[in-house]
Write a structure and sequence with these properties.
This protein is mainly beta and 149 residues long. Helix content is 7%, strand content 42%. It is globular and about 45 Å long.
Length: 149
């Protein structure tokens, strides 16, 4: 199994490019915070290269900017190339399969370009007593949740 899940911030404005056969692609880096702090008490980050293709690349280039939080689902992909001195260099990228808008708005607070709310945005879905849809059923209901233990 080869599966990668990341949530991090884009480190630079994504720039859309095209192959010689006019296929859209995008290479960008995501900074992902580590879950622990170093000896100085500071949280470090890993900088992970991501490659997106076609419609996903176009969408990310259109709606994301430097500093935006993005959720990534993909797979590790290795590659190699010869540098200008003829040395073989090896690469490892995350090939994007899916992505999600994690923040509901961009850094400037403008939500006009985002049509999809983030699942991480808080919404108060409580029901007031005056509008209780179960009020006509009388007594309160007791639910035994001892089976959860």
């Amino acid at each position: 199994m080869n599966k990668v899940l990341l949530v991090g911030r884009i480190t630079a404005k994504p720039e859309l490019r095209y192959t010689s056969s006019n296929t859209a692609f995008l290479r960008f880096t995501v900074a992902v915070n580590r879950t622990f702090t170093n000896a100085d008490g500071k949280r470090e980050a890993d900088f992970i290269n991501v490659v997106a293709w076609r419609k996903q690349a176009e969408t990310i280039a259109k709606f994301f900017d430097k500093g935006n939080l993005i959720g990534i689902e993909g797979r590790l992909q290795t590659g190699s190339y010869d540098d200008k001195d003829g040395n073989k260099r090896y690469t490892m990228d995350v090939a994007l399969d899916n992505f999600e808008f994690v923040e509901g708005k961009n850094k400037g607070g403008d939500t006009s370009s985002f049509s999809e709310p983030s699942p991480y945005d808080y919404q108060d879905n409580s029901v007031s007593v005056e509008n209780d849809p179960f009020a006509e059923y009388g007594d309160s209901v007791s639910i035994d949740d001892s089976f959860l233990d």
